[in-house]
Amino acid sequence: MSASSPTGAARDFAAVDLGASSGRVMLARAGGGELSLREAHRFANRPVRVLGTLHWDVLALWDGLLTGLRAAGREAGGPLAGVGIDSWAVDYGLLDASGALLGNPVHYRDGRTDGVAAQVAGVLPPRELYAATGLQELPFNTVYQLVAARGSAQLAAAHRLLLIPDLMAYWLTGRAGTELTNASTTQLIDPRTRSWSPVVAEALDIDQGLFPPLRLPGDPAGELTPEVLAETGLAGPVPVWAVASHDTASAVVGVPASGKRFAYIATGTWSLAGLELDAPVLSQESRRANFTNELGVDGTVRYLRNIMGLWLLQECLREWERSGTPYELEPLLRDAARAEPLRSVVDAGDPEFIAPGDMPGRIARACARTGQPEPRDAAETVRCVLDSLALAHRVTVREAQRLSGRSVETVHVVGGGARNELLCQLTADACGLPVVAGPAEAAALGNVLVQARAAGVLGGGLAELRGLLRATAPLRHHEPMGDAGAWDRAAARISGGREVGR
């Protein structure tokens, strides 16, 4: 039975999608050939710095989640067939033996992991760590956070460690589990066995007993507790389903691809660009190229590289607002489209751009260091950002093909960046491949598709689920245009005369 030939009548689901800057609860209806999505509630996700440490305000997220479920229940006008939660990766909360949270989770952009990767390399060399986990070295990976927290009072008192979506699911149900796609971002999972890596845990003295049992996308995660039902006004029982709880894993489910010869770029604060494979790529060449092997739905591997993403643009807008010269995004994008193309580009993967603060200044300095003209105004800065992101997309898609042996015919851009027509067209131009843009809400749709299949409303595998997406989601197509050689020359300007990433 395929998803387009329904296994059950349409039912309502709530998809909780927590992003780095905002969260939302989406009400979806799936089944009977139908797949629709509307926003029930959106809420801000504002990190808070306390005594020098940057934290997530997890109780504000919880309050937003409950408010969203209450709104979804009112809009549905009937029972919900499920709730699923996805969020960003790597961060976690620690619980004591009674199940109480031992403090606000630390933000992955906090500086506590500065220099920790080098410490870990002295114990577990990068080639061995990559052979064991296949994960891209990023300074904020969970494994580095745990090493940085070693000796702290919180970690000493911890009985359980729950990644952010698992923490929310625990508060909803009272049942603890660790969903696999998000666990695979911790740098503690072996992508071949799809279980914890004893090599890493033993070498770094990390207690794997902190993690509750692994769950797969589609596994039941419990039911809403009586307290949550009372708080939200929902009629029970309401099942909570483990979905692909890393938002990128859900977004990849939400890629409306046909066949296997596609690349995806899940855009938002980060751009996660890569391929969907059947097995990990664990070569040392892959490690040196800084590709990661994260786990996906139905036994797949998300072979990808993290690129700085629209964070660069978001931080520019915040800096201009702080300095008293705020800009509206749409007019700025129109001005950027008229600006000189490829006048200046930066390496969008440079760690210099990870921290918040004065992004326009850092971009200008990066241009100057590579002998390129500094942007003269906001429009040129935005054009530099978008050209640079498109260039990073090109490099990553090309490298992923070469290292995996999988060729690509189409690039799918999903997530918030799918709404940015200039970025999508520039990505098509840079990659020399057609780009299909949309859906913008790929993570929430992927969340719902896994829930609906688990609930028996939809059937089939990823191909059938994606077929339903193609039939229901609004998509835009961009064909490559312009001078391909101009992109080659731009790449050489920031890579010492060779293509970036090669």
From TrEMBL:
Domain Carbohydrate kinase FGGY N-terminal positions: 15-254
GO MF entries: ATP binding; glycerol kinase activity; rhamnulokinase activity
One GO cellular component term noted in the UniProt record for this chain: cytosol
Signal peptide: none
InterPro entries named among the record's database cross-references: ATPase_NBD, FGGY_C, FGGY_N, Rhamnulokinase
Keyword annotations: ATP-binding, Disulfide bond, Kinase, Nucleotide-binding, Rhamnose metabolism, Transferase
The organism's place on the tree of life at top rank: Bacteria
Domain Carbohydrate kinase FGGY C-terminal: 263-455
Record-level GO BP terms: glycerol metabolic process; rhamnose catabolic process
Keyword ATP-binding: yes
Family of the protein in this entry: Belongs to the FGGY kinase family.
PANTHER family: L-RHAMNULOKINASE, SUGAR KINASE
Protein's name in the database: Rhamnose kinase
